[in-house]
Specification:
Blueprint (H helix, E strand, L loop, with lengths): L5 H19 L5 H7 L6 H13 L3 E3 L6 E3 L1 H12 L7 H4 L9 H16 L2 E7 L4 E5 L13 H13 L1 H9 L6 E5 L11 E10 L2 E10 L4 H22 L1
Antiparallel strand pairs: 1-2, 3-4, 3-7, 5-6, 6-7
Length: 244
Amino acid sequence: MKYVDPDKRESRILNLAIEGYIKESRPISSSYLCEKFNLPYSTATVRNILGALEKRGLLSHIHTSSGRVPTQEGFRHYVDYLIGEEIITPDEFIDAEVDVSDGVEELLNNTVDVLAVLSGYTSLLAISGLEERFLFRGARFIFEQPEFEDVAKLKSFFYALEVKINIFQDLLFNCLDEGVKVLIGKDIGCEEISGCSLVVSGFQKKKLCAGLALLGPMRMNYVKAISTIDMMSHKLQESIEDIF
């Protein structure tokens, strides 16, 4: 019998459970995992693993359902795994263009527009140096997320965007030259969006600092968000270098 590392098996089940939750937006059961991913384990074995992951605080059990949902710690484990892997950027993202023909103003507006449309999340941009600006686009995409059918959560989301701008600016400028950084839930430091995640990337060239971010529910498609923002951050940097 082939030896199976129990830690690796648990990690795989956790990652699959989170991917299932991101896609389905509902609690994930052992039977779903076995059928969807054609796992070589019985549903009882997978159920036991889910139970073990719950005891570790990585999953939570909604008692009205047989399935489980990821906790903030579970998402953190998943994102740390992703960042350690090579994420391939889809061709349609690579082919995306940002217009530099009309100067800096148009470049910034075009960048946040494209980032929001490609990702399906709210995009943010903070820039200082030549000028200091904070832009966001794609707030409309939040209406497509089931979490924000709750009106109170929706109000809090827009309140944070309109009133807590300084928090976002500080976060974006503090993550320059760190590749892609993912802040999950309470790590953002803004109570109104503690159920969200913020994916950040940026760069610093001489006296110019620019930070990009994607804001969405904690049940975010992190693979898509990370690859999109990484690509758009590089494109923005290249475009600014071309202009100056």
